[in-house]
Amino acid sequence: MTDIKWHKFTKHRLKMHWTTDQTVSLSSAVMYGVLSLSMAFLNKAVVSEYQFNFPFFILACQMLLTVCILECLRITGKFSIPLITLSSVKMFALPAFCYSLHATLALVALEGMNIPMYGALKRCTPLVNLILAVKYLKKPRPSTILMTSVFIITLGCVIAGVSDPTFNGYAYTMGALSVVTQAVYLTLVQECGESNLSPLHILHLNSYIAVVPFIILTCAYGEFTAVLLYQHRLEFEFVTIFFLLLVLGLLLNFSLFLCTMLNSALTTSIVGVSKSVLQTVIGFYAFGGITFHLVNIAGIVLNTLGGILYAYAKYKEGQRRHRKIDLGDKGIQQEEFPTELHISNNHNNKYTKAIRRQYEQKPQVDLQTMARETVLAFLFLFSCFIPWSFSRNLEFNPYRDIHSCTEREFFDEVSLECVKCGDNQTSQNEKRHCICDAGFKTVYDGYNVKCEVCPDFYVSTKDKTDCIPCLNESFFDASLRECLPYSNFSVDVSESVIMADRFLNGSVRDNMQFLRCSNDTVVENDSCMPCHPSFYIASGGYCHCPTTHVEFQGICILQKYLEKIPNKESSFMVTFEDGLQVLSSYYQINFRLAAVLCTYLKNRTACQMLSNMCVMHHYEFSENFNACQFYREEYGENFINIPDYVPWLYYTEGEASVYLSKTRLKTQYSFKLSDPNSKLNFTVAKYSVNGHLLGYGQLEDTLTLCPLTDFHLEDAVRFGTTFSQTCIVDVQDIWDSYETVFYDVFLQYYDDDEHMIYAIPVLNRNYKEDGIFVNQQSERKWQLMRRFFLVDNISGKGSLSPKAQDQSHRARVVRYAQNIEILIRLREGESHGLIYPPFFRITYGEVNDDMYSSKQKVKMTLRVSYTMDFAKIHEDLSIAVGVISAFATLWSLIGTWSWSRRCGKLNIDIPTIIHLLVTVCGNLANVFFIVMLFACLYWTIFFKRQDVVHLFLLTDDQEKLIKEYLIAACFLKLIQIVHILYIQVSLDMFIIDWEQPRAKNSLPHPQLSSNLEDQKSNKAEQQPISIWRTYFIANEWNELQTYRKIDLGCQLFITLLFLHVFRFKNLANAGPDSNFNEKDSQYSPFQSYVCRFAISIGIYSLTAACQWLYKAAFYERCIEDKLQQFIDLCSIANISIFILEHKMYGYYIHGRSVHGYADVDMHSFYEQLKREEEDLCGHRGLEPSSECQTFEVAITYKFREQYDNILKPFRGFIGIQKQGSHGKMASSEMEQSFHAHETMKRFFGMFLQHAVRDLDYIVKDKLFLESVLDLEFQEVDDRCLFFRDNNRTFDNVLFCGCEVSFVLFEMLLFTFVDLLSYDFILAAIITFIVGYIIKKVRYAGGRKNVVNKTLVDQRFLI
């Protein structure tokens, strides 16, 4: 007999295939489809919508729940499941690992994919299954229609994925790996099925094995700790969905097994495909985040059609293929499963025999009973959660106003909702409360009010407390149940006459009568009764207070109620910030009364008054008992269990981050003025100090921050506009002109189509616990509140005497809202324009009575700030600065290496380290400036131009990072500028005159010393060479040292012209508008420093770039090029210049005339130029047939030694001093200077003509990499190196060669001054002054250096 894998359990299944009730079979199939469909959406809701990205924790909980339930069923004997053994664990370890990996990857993929694409990708599983079945399980090749369907599925998935507008490469990769691991898992399970393991046993094994790695990974990745801190962990909606996710995960696996048992595997497959189609359709409309694209939709449809074709192909195969199962007593034809699991004929399998014995020993379950119980449990599970969904949530409520209430509803001043009146009641007094209808009298059932109908021909009294007949039955209107007006009859009714229903003693009359009110009373609502209703309630309809009650503050109160409210001095004491304690007369008069009326009579106005008293205490509760302590003891410490007649004051302690991070607000705000969501629809409920509702409307219409000044709150509610306005108020006005008013703020929004309001929390920074300002510390310690006030000039009024409850003239201390800030945070990573719940942050100030007559003023500021997660911004900036700074440091090392080689240093010494630090300073300043500039330009441009909101500007606190970088960059750049100035005013240079004597002169030269005459005694006397050409070149060089292509004065003038005249500065306003014109109102919009820096430096940079392009592209080409003119001048003057910027490195400007002489008359001069023009002479270059006149020079140590030896006697010599008297000959030092000048000239002349032994040079080109890195790789041996330089890099020793450094320094200085002063004009003035000083310092130092190094007379430098 064949050894089948399910034994008796399969036998029950095969019997029930024909005998099970069709309703139960259908229910099991529907149950599987619903559960399978729900799982994808629940996973999406938990992982994506709630951002519960803890896949290992979810799976560990699912496995634990499955293990617990299966063990309970096994122990109770409901199922026969073999015990877990080591051999079974080893056998199923690999499939369990693949299942774990598949489940984890699927959850990760769902976080970044929409539901339709997830379903399309999962339908690619058959492709991998078919490959593994053929290659691994050695199954026959599938049919053509099956392969076609798989191909269509895969093609549709590829098309949909490529054209998915929300394509996420990481999510798709995880989804693809999930498909592969699922296919491997199914293949391994199929192989295990052939080893005679039942599906229930597989589920049992899989749960036991997989729970271990999931728990380990949960702890290893810190998910367990993160779950404990998860912000939504206490929310009912999340807990419900998470519990359903766990339960449905178990039920899904079981329903798969149940559906297969009661129907067939083919039915299960078809249900799965149908579910997939529904999942795709519903997924387009659930959760959002899906962008419709034609190609993407086409791919999903193609993928879905392939799935349907696959199910059809498997259906046909199932009809064609049957097999016989030998159960020992008869053979039964059974459909083969689509997964092609077949039964093994292995009779000697020990594990199979063990399983058979356990199944035979355990009682088997009735599948029909089990199905009914499971379906009923499934329905019961959902029904249990339905009532919970209607629990009260005070944060999110439907929006209602007074006008929306019907005549049978009144407007509840606490919940701000329309509440239905009782039976036979109608709202009155502007729908503030309900009274009985006409013809009904008020009956008090305890403190509950009921309306009882009056007998026929009777009407209710004016106060609705009794019934009374009309004067005549004919006056009775049965339809209105009122007495007809006497104006319809001949009765004269004057203004002082009322329709009286009571006698003067308060007893009810026999019928309606007319009475004239006394002179000391007035007709008000047709009544002359001044008695408070509490007297009637206490006395059963009489206007007196019984002995069991006590009259307190004009109200009749049950004495035992009043005795329960302690009459402590601490209840009336108010402590202010400076330590002053005032025994408040207001608290003495009203606290106990409000406490009794609110607690025992449930008087809503009294509850409002009691709450206001707590708010005036800054919510501080004292162990010595005060209003806040009474509120918390009586009504709770938060809003969860608070009665509906008591205003809500406290949020749950320590849960500020939870409330401020909720994602219930679905309104997508926009910057478009035409969009209704371009405005924050704040709604304010305004209450008097005595608890009456004064107003309920828009914030800009209701919140009166500064009633005595023009305060523009319309700009404050414009979405995206950072608003800041301050009003200056006289201290006396705080006492005399302001009322103490309290505010509850709400935000209107739409949840789908329902108009809702959200209660805005308040963060009172003056709130203290145990003497600590907890709301001025970290967010995790915050205590959020609900209500706030602007001015409190009530609680500080003390009693004139300790026992009297009268009030003094004015409050001894007044509190006022010094700073109110509304903070709105952007929700990133979701749809654009979504925000977290806003909140108010308020700081209160105090003024005491001594300041009343001082005529001092105080400031009250309202600010609206928009912020986003700065952690990501900070991280991005840090990464950008860090990475680029690393390259800048590397570039500094290369520059320092080049400098050390040019200075001839062989080792690292102190000057090398100092130069490295200076170079790093300059390069880091460039990095800081460039990164901050581009970041600010990005924020400014994208913030101003976005219609769909995806970013906000930085707040003041967040801007500190930008400012710190810019300040650091300014000072670092200053160090580099000082270093550049030092290098340029300390370099070595010499002017070489190539002119040679041409004629004899019989007269002695007056300036030649006798030593020179002795040296030339053997030579023919020649005419001396004129020194004026040398002086002329020295003067031109001196003027060229401070020449710049960018004129600083013009630069600053154009920048200010655009900023102030063309009003580009208005673009720096911290709002979404991009207007150049200022608003007509007095309100000056707040300016964002990010925008201010981006706009000002953007204009400055563009102006500098335009100046440079104008000079480089037009001016130097068409008008004059000062550097080229100087080189030409050197050639005409027959003079060369040798410059040593560093000890072993410098520049050479070759100016030797091709004509041999330059000291000629005008005719000869023009003849020389003409010969050059006609190319009748040689070229001006150093080399023959070369025009290159400028070179970079790397000299040898021997050359430097010879140069230093010539100048050694004159180190520190500053040129020829002014003569003391006319006719006096030069000093000996002057003569030595002349001699050194001649010696140096002959040395350079001979060296450049290759006439000095052991000192020679070669001319060559720099390598490309040498030019890029500004570093010479070629070693200088015994010959100097002259590198051809057509880029005139000798300007590095001039201002024009360091143009970029000076422009960056000026921009940083301009930014630094503007950062401190917020004044562009002042920044421009200081920048110009500093630039002028630097220029003068450079000119003076350069002039002195020219005199010192070229040995020319300083008197001839202009």
From TrEMBL:
Protein name as catalogued: Meckelin
Annotated source species: Halocaridina rubra
Keyword annotations from UniProtKB, A to Z: Membrane, Transmembrane, Transmembrane helix
GO BP, sorted A to Z: cilium assembly
A GO-annotated cellular component: MKS complex
Domain annotation Sugar phosphate transporter: ranges: 34-310
TM annotation in the entry: 21-42, 54-77, 89-109, 144-163, 169-188, 208-230, 236-258, 265-287, 293-313, 374-390, 877-900, 912-941, 1316-1334
Signal peptide: none
